[in-house]
Amino acid sequence: MIKAKKAKLLLNIIPFAAVAAISATTAIIVYSSVNKNESNKAYIASRAINSNLIADAINTNLNNSSNKDNNLEKLEKVKETVVEAEPVEKTPEAEPAPAPEPEPTPEPEPAPVPEPTPTPTPEPEPAPQPAPAPKPEPIPEPEPEPKKPIIIADKPVEEKPAVEIPPVEKVEEPPLVLEPKEEPKPQPQPEPAPAPEPQPEPKPAPEPVPEPKPVPKATEGAAVKIESLPDLDFAKLKSPKNGGSISEAEKAVIKNSLNTLKALSVNIPAQWTAEQREQLHNAYEKLYKYEFGGEDVPPYNKEWVDNYFTLIQNDGKTMEKKLKALGLVGPRIVPNQNPALDFKNAIELFSKELDERLANGWVPHVGFETYSFGVSWAYADPSKNVVRNHAIESNKKRYFGYDKSPHRREDNDIKNNNYPGWVKTDVTSNYSDLGVSKSDGIEVLQYNPESEYARTTEAGKSPRFVAVLDAANPSGYSKFLNFIKELGRTPFRKLDGIVIKNMGKYDRTQKFDHILSQIPDTVKKLTLIFEARDTSSLRALKDKHIEELEIYTSNGALDKEWAINPYALRGVKFVSFDYAQQGYGTIVFNKLKFDAEDNLSTINEAFRMVFDTRSGERIFQGAFGDGSWPTKLDFSNVPAIRSLKGMFLNNRVFKELTLYNSTNVFEVDLATLTSQQWSALLIKGPERPKLYFSSPTLVNTLYFKGDSVPDNFGRDLYGLIESGNYHFQTIYVDNQAVADTLNSSQAFRTFNKHAVVKPANFNANGGNSEISFD
């Protein structure tokens, strides 16, 4: 019965043993390296559940195993006799390892363990006594040999890597070695891939900079020839070809007078003698009489003409120094002017053209009243003199008008508020109830018509009243505004005109905007007498409707620093003009200067007045009168203006242009270069154009922004480079193609300029005084 049970048990175990043999990995036998002096002990590591060791087996030492299985139990040493196993109702799934008695080879080289015929052992559920493995029947049991420590390692646990143990050669006895079956061979579990070493985060590769496309070379256009520039003449008063008839006797007097001047000009002394001065006066007085045709000739001012003779003395002094010594201001001073040489050249030209001019009814206009040295001719017949006729018509347009006389108001008339054909009466005391008096610097004047013309015109139908304020009187300055407001509340006390004198005389920062903006609508005539150069208060008039405006000074009417914003005069119907070299006279504005609130629209509206619709008015004709215009532009108060682009210039050219610039770099947009109108700075004559900057720092760098140069750029580039020649010591561009184009231009070659590609650290907003080229 026991044998039958054994047989049955063996039959049940064999399948499990076969499965275990197939799934188990080949056992690796190694010598124990732990402690050779200890007794032979076996260390077994197995993945099988409830794995048991037959015959002298003990629990494995987990500290030296490749995989830890905590389900192995310590087994008691069993007897060699076969004990009948308890019947097992249910065999758990397990992978029993066969327990052959391998015969290890003797040292030093271990022989392969003989592979016995596998005999499955029963696995009880909780078996206190494990079933002994039966002895293999086919092969006799080998001689026992001393046992060595053996480590049997199963395949590594998937979760924990096994300790790598060098393989041990198998025992060469074929019958005793259990060879693993090839089929089905378990798939080896892939060793876990080693964790990748941390790699530095790759930096993004810089985007490749596209190579610039080749820029086609721009055409420069026609070369600039300064000497061939056209003579611009926008005169409204066209002179007839014939100036009148001249008798032979008159021609002889004119020729003799001119010959006297010519003889004296050959060798001009450092100081005229009294006799020479008398000869000069006699010749000039005769020419002066014929210049006016004998009709309504103004008195010959010998003292005034004598100053002229002092100016032309050959004493080595400059014109500017001579004028200052005489207390005069010259209208047309050029650098290094030589008045003695200019006088000599003028007389020679007069003599050369004299016969032809006399035949056509023209007489010499020596121009001493303006201290000019140009050559001009006057009408022998005054009625044909378009300038004279224009002056007569202008006098009729005055608020206190007069006719027939071409003469303007004189210095004393302006100073004392007198008008030809009108009688003045001081009525200040009639306004004492309004709290004003002469001690406050406030006067009220009444004007009544006296001349036939004044009495017969609309203006002469009733008296006219004018209030006068002396701005140098602090008391009157503070009371005047209240005074004109009170007048507005009394209809029977009308105010027709206002005069403000000594504006800025003692305080150059004195402001008049508030007073001018409060002028009542009843005021039709306004007279302003400036003593400081600041006329910006005129902007308060831009929305006023005034019939006549007079702008005077006693402080050098021809000074080049005077400037005006023409937009301020858009509501003024007529601006009178009373020219004077010294004393009181109308200010000559050769510069147009705009205010901070202006923009391109208001600027163009002003330019249309000056250069077109009102160009015939003397106030808009600059220093040279009819046919001319103000030749200086100032946009220093308008930072947005960077050029003349978009402006209505009506073919005018200019000698000076002032712009605002906040840094040391002036930037020009290449794309719009040809529309920026720098060609308006191309002028003819000895005076050269100038570009000025109003800036907190020195402007010394020019930056052309853009990748290409437009066609026909030559004229605008020439105007920019010539006018800014002394500013632009450094010129930067964006690429070499632009640099090559500019460097080969006429402007760069003429003024010795050289453009280079801007450095990497270039800042177009300025601060480039120390730019590195490394």
Automatic annotation (TrEMBL):
Pfam assignment, any one: MIB_M2
Signal sequence range: none
Domain Mycoplasma immunoglobulin binding protein M2 intervals: 589-748
Stretches with biased composition (Pro residues): 95-141, 186-215
Basic and acidic residues bias spans: 84-93, 155-185
Stored InterPro entries: MIB_M2, Mycoplas_M_dom, Predic_Ig_block
Transmembrane regions: 9-31
Domain of life: Bacteria
Stretch list, region Disordered: 84-219
NCBIfam families xref list: mycoplas_M_dom, predic_Ig_block
Protein name, per record: Filamentous hemagglutinin
Organism: Mycoplasmopsis columboralis
Gene coding for it: fhaB
